[in-house]
Amino acid sequence: MLEAASICRSLTLSDSDGAGAFLLFALYLEALVSRREADAVEADHYDSLIAEITVPINACIDALEAADVPKLVANLDSFARTAVRNALR
To answer: For a tag on the chain, would you pick the N or C end, based on fewer CB atoms within 10 A?
Structure first.
């Protein structure tokens, strides 16, 4: 997960429109790791969240690669809604 956060941080430095949004992913993934390492999250909930949250993150990466800003914005919205819906307990 920290490797994924690192990749997101490197994407933030890209010249592509919308690339700065990947800082959001990096910070979120780092927070997930921190919470999990502190045993503040049930393992099943954590695994389920990771499986669900990677879908919009991957879609954002695809949109960024395709330079499709509207699709990137839509997938960022999906990421945010998923994160809020599955707030770590």
So the answer is: C
The full DSSP string for 11-63 is HHTSSSTTGGGHHHHHHHHHHHHHHHHTT-S-HHHHHHHHHHHHHHHHHHHHH
Interhelix angle for 2-12 vs 22-37, to 10°? 160
Asked if 23 contacts 9 with a C-beta cutoff of 8 angstroms, the reply is yes
Helix axes of 43-65 and 69-85: crossing angle, nearest 10 degrees = 170
Tell whether pTM > 0.90.
no
Residue 49: name the closest of 61, 63, 33 by CA.
33
